[in-house]
Amino acid sequence: MSIICGTDLSAASAGALEVARALAAQRGDADVILVYVIEDEGAVDAARAKLDAQVASAGPGPTILPELVVGAADETLVSFADTEASDLIVIASSSKPGSLLRLGTTAERVIALTRVPVLVVRDPAPWLRFARGERQLRLLLGIDDSVACELGIQWTHALRTRGPVEVVLGAIYYPDDAAHHYGLHARALVDRDPEIERLLARDLMHRFGDTQNVVARTRRGLGRIGDHVVELANEEKVDAIVVGTGQKTGLDRLGSVSSIIVHDARQSVICVPPTANIPTMRVPQIANILVATDLSPFANRAVPYAFSIGSEIHVAHVVDDDAEIDEADLRNQILSLAPTGKSLEPHVVRGDDSAHAIAQTAARLGVDAICIASHGRSGISRALVGSVADKLIRATRKPVMVLRPG
């Protein structure tokens, strides 16, 4: 796979080419494809001479394969990445941080269209020294629940196999949303919430799956997520920001997180699209399981299944908020469900919506997966009564194992 580098023959583009060749050399690539796109077909000869001059002025390194194309820059770069089976596009930032330009830059249009990660270079120096083995690279990895974020995590793990990379895991939270996610009481919306930040930091580290040279940072949000990510990047003095992109188009991109970061960040930015083909570098570990049961014989059968895939088992039983119960008796009933020689953690949870209560409990405990038995209702019965298993799958982002009746 070749790295694609876009150029407009500017000094900034020359720096991006240096980075592309340095990264190519680091991973053993023989060449880099340098693409120069012009709109005027009558200017081909002059453009060819300028492109050849940029190639001639480049220093030693992987071979540069120059391509001169008449057309639209964004569509051409994306097309080359597809036809060459490239896994990275490198392009210089075409606007200064904080400038009034928002839509229409080549970098932003490429990010909105491509199926491969894009490295938007602002300062080449950290990348060059990292690729040459002269220094550690420091990245801020923005974490959310998106597929593109998971791909960004895998992309970062791959980069860490090629050299020393210190990772700052960053998450922006809004107190009311985060409190609902974890099933906690919301505090003042303008203040930091230490308990939420503790849980978020735990989940960030667990999701990344590695603790060496990795730190978690959370920030309470008051405005746009993208603005907070840029502030966090400046505070942590990172060299680059890795972020997933939902690839919004048109006016929607004005408020997209990746667009704000690409436009306003002082650092280089790596945008990973949700369609990127990123190899899995680290397999998730399933150890902690939450079993939900209504204490019926069939629902209780989910408990031994949970022990078959996990080592630390939590079992939760949900009761209505205003239910009068003997909690000690319920906990003893739950404890009795443990297979011979095994132990589990019992939880009696209050909530009028069982599915949401289970999802919140799973988030608060930080389990890896949820196991539940479905009574298998169908037709009118299912429409009228609903299915806790179905609702749970929609309420949580965690894997759900559903035990079906025979």
Give your account of this protein's structure:
The chain has three domains: 1-92, HUPs (Rossmann fold); 122-284, Rossmann fold (3-Layer(aba) Sandwich); 288-403, Rossmann fold (3-Layer(aba) Sandwich), CATH 3.40.50. The protein contains 16 helices and 15 strands. The strands form two sheets. Strands 3-2-1-4-5-10-9-6-7-8 form a ten-stranded mixed sheet, sandwiched between helices. It has a five-stranded parallel sheet with strand order 13-12-11-14-15, with helices on both faces. The longest helix has 17 residues, at 11-27. The protein is of the alpha/beta class and 406 residues long. It has helices at residues 11-27, 44-57, 73-83, 106-113, 124-131, 147-160, 175-182, 194-208, 225-236, 257-264, 297-300, 302-309, 327-335, 354-365, 379-385, 388-395; strands at 3-7, 31-38, 63-70, 89-92, 118-121, 137-142, 165-173, 214-220, 240-244, 268-272, 288-292, 312-319, 345-350, 369-373, 400-403. Helix 14 (354-365) packs across helix 16 (388-395). Helix 4 (106-113) links the parallel strand 4 (89-92) and strand 5 (118-121).
Structural class: alpha/beta
CATH architecture of the largest domain: 3-Layer(aba) Sandwich
Please, what is the oligomeric state? single chain
- The percent range for helix content is 40-55%
What is Rg? 26 Å
What fraction of the residues are assigned to beta strands by DSSP? 15-25%
Uncertain regions spanning at least 5 consecutive residues: 99-104, 249-255, 379-386
At the fourth level of CATH, the homologous superfamily of the largest domain is HUPs
Count of individual helical segments: 16
Q: What is the CATH class name of the largest domain?
A: Alpha Beta
C-alpha geometry:
elongated
From the 3D structure, determine the CATH topology of the largest domain.
Rossmann fold
Distance between the termini: 49 Å
Trace the largest sheet across and list its strands.
3-2-1-4-5-10-9-6-7-8
Number of strands: 15
- Rounded average pLDDT: 90
| Structural domain tally | 3
